[in-house]
Structure formats: structure tokens, C-alpha cells
Known about the structure:
Layout: H1 2-23, H2 28-36, H3 59-62, H4 68-74, H5 76-81, H6 85-93, H7 107-120
Helix pairs in contact: 2-7
This protein binds heme C.
Heme C (HEC) binds at residues 39-40, 42-44, 52-54, 56, 59, 62-63, 73, 76, 90-91, 94, 97, 99-100, 102, 113.
Amino acid sequence: MKFIRMAFPIVAVVVLLSSFSHQSALTERELAGKKLFRKCAVCHRTDDKPKKGPGLKGATQRMPGGDWRYRFVRNASEVIASGDAYATRLFVEYKRETMTAFPKLTNDEIDMIFEYIDAVNR
Ligand code: HEC
């Protein structure tokens, strides 16, 4: 009886911990985003540490809204050349390093990349 009383909290903790680790497993979309992120990883990290470009943690919260993220990822230079203030500030801050254009990425694929970045930071 004493053994059972001692074992119960241990079992409860193990069950609780395994349910937490289950929560952090990536969904299918996030996994697809992880694969696509390989194109970005030369210049970006998923945390907040800069590489050639900014660390992308929290990018979904700070970027301008609407279709900005799609236009920027497909052709950052074009967005900068249009006089966009947010893009120009980053361009100057990151020593005028030009981000590769990804004209073939669809909105959905770009969404999956950001879903992956948000998933590893949640
Ligand atoms: C050759 C390096 C390079 C690659 C590859 C690259 N980027 Fe970038 N990225 C940059 C730089 C540098 C900036 C800063 C703005 C600028 O200089 O154009 C930037 C800025 C960004 C921003 C704005 C971040 C913020 O803080 O608001 C986003 C979002 C972004 N990149 C997403 C991506 C995604 C998604 C990919 C992959 C599909 C990618 N980048 C690939 C270099 C790169």
C-alpha cells in the first residue's frame, strides 16, 4: 500500500511530461515548412540571433501585414526598390546584404515556413 502511494505521484509526473513532449511535435504543415526552411537557413536562424539576415523568431508578429511577407520572400529587392520603409530599414541594418528571391514559392509554402518558425518558438 505504501509503495502504491509513493508510486502514484511518480507515474503522474511521467504521464504529464510525456503529454508535454507530445505537444511540441510538429504537424505535417510545420514539417513541410521545416524542409522549405533549408532554403533560408544559410542566412536565417529560427531563434532571435542574427546571421546574414535577422533571426526569424517573432517575424510573423513584427512584419507588416497583408501580402507583404509573400511579396518580400518572393522578391525582397523589388520591395526595397519600391521604397517600402520597413524593408529599407532592415536592408540598411543588415549591411545591404541582398536576400535571395524565391519567385517559385507559393503563399501556402511561405505560410508553412512561418508556421514552422512559430512552432519551434512556442
Ligand atoms: C542570401 C541570404 C538570405 C537568404 C537565403 C534568405 N534571406 Fe531572408 N533576409 C536576408 C537579409 C539580409 C534580410 C534583411 C533585409 C535585406 O537586407 O534585404 C532578410 C530579411 C528577411 C525577413 C524580414 C525579417 C524581419 O525581421 O522582419 C524575412 C521574413 C525573411 N528574410 C524571410 C526569409 C525566408 C522565408 C527565406 C527562405 C525562403 C529567406 N528569408 C532566405 C537574407 C536572406
